[in-house]
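Minimal example, chain plus zinc ion.
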Amino acid sequence: MKAAVLKWRGADGVSWRDFPDPTPAQGESVLRVAASSANRVDLYMRDSGAGITHSLPQVMGVEAAGVIAESAPGSGLKPGMKAVLYSEVFCGNCRYCLAGDQPLCESVKIMGEHRHGGFAEYVAMPSQCFFPLPDDSDLVAAGALMTGHLTAWRMLFGKRALQPGESVLIVGIGGGVAVACLQLATMIGARAFVTSSSDAKIARAMALGAAGGVNYTKDNVAKAILDMSNGGVDMAIDSVGASSWADSLKSLRRGGRLVTCGATSGANPPADLQRMFIRQLEIYGSTGGSVGEFRQLLDVFARGLVKPEIDSQFAIADVRSALDRLSAGAQFGKVSLIV
Ligand SMILES: [Zn+2]
């Protein structure tokens, strides 16, 4: 088959080339990939990969949708079915898996990180990671769901679920997770406020239903959010980290909650403990989403209630351009790859 393979670190280490077909282990099925999308973690794998157990060369790509090419006996899957992959291989036996909390699995292995990924003509995964889709499903949209929308789903509706009528601050609109948060918050009738350095991105967010936006290069974020939300938001979603943390904390109402899912600008901002205890704030982290949350997301997707916003589409042979597009940070929504 052909695959986008990372042979060495750096932008020129990625190429679309011949690679051995996947050989499914017992219980695994094979997907013929139709579409995937590029994510920040692909850039991390390309440029560093530190802390993630893997070996090069490796097929990249942490999500994929397509058509089942080979199904394991007894899996209930049938060749020819459209399907999307849950991209985390979980053990099913640890205390977290048994509690339905697969993203916390003690031996989780993510495709495109710990094992070969979805930037390929074919990928093998345990059959329990295959989720059949209706025949009329848009596979480009499905191939952009797992990372952005599932991560967003767990942040918004996981530990302390955002409620209709509540408000949420989404820091740094434009990335796949942030845009997914905007779509999902709006879908349930919550008010979403966004920040960006780009007036154009704020305008696009408003067109998607945002209740307000702040350009952080021109205005004081916390002051503007407190004004627009009448005293502070119920929840803040911050994947930026050090550079936005203080504003995110100050934008919360008393008793509000801050969810972190990334630290692109730095991982150690001042904690501001006095603010935390006096205002009784909650702070917690989130990454990925559970199988149960994925089922909920797929139900909403299949009914047409939410569809990923696609920034751009690239043929997979042009994977380097897709990663460059993501690296430049100018995107609004998902950078899709068509196989
Ligand atoms: Zn487990």
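Residues 2-147+289-338 form a domain with the Quinone Oxidoreductase; Chain A, domain 1 fold (CATH 3.90.180.10). The longest helix spans residues 176-187.
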